[in-house]
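Many introductory courses stop at the sequence. We go one step further.
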Amino acid sequence: MENEESILFINTPDLSSLRDPDQARYNLKNSNGNSNDYYQRIQLFTLEWTKNVHPWLEGRIQLVQAYRISRGLSERSFNELAFELLSIGINLREHGLQAKSMPDGVIRLLRKIINLQKRYEKFESLFKIIRGGINGIYLHRQKSDLFNLPAFRKLISWMEIQGCEMQASRFNEWLDYFNYAGGRVTNDLMNTCE
């Protein structure tokens, strides 16, 4: 990935639908200004990852699908759910430490700032500067145990204040499943996405 920035907030496993700015926040253009190559590479990576974990993961995903049906949630294919699990791991690795280190009070403050930003649109750029400054305080690059439910819960809250409501909503569905399934299943799936 030469000369590319690749921070992803992918909200859907269907990579062709990433044209809507509300669906993804990214800067994937290489030095030639072309991001098409990235989509091909990420699609290959996702398919390879899914293929490698498929035999073990299939039974677990069937349990997730049964849980979703029992709760009246929309059906998702094996590939969609496997991709979401992969996305959980990517987001925990990329943003989990910042999310984990942000106090709940700061998250509540940022939610209030977001509401003010929506209410007073003409001051949007000022509110974004304030949000960026507050977020910057919590940037860390230390190692930490991030593949657990408390860190995942914090990541979801953090994603909500970063404007990733759709992905946070999907991750909340996973959090509900993890709480329902219990420690062993949750640990297995967290280890898989790590």
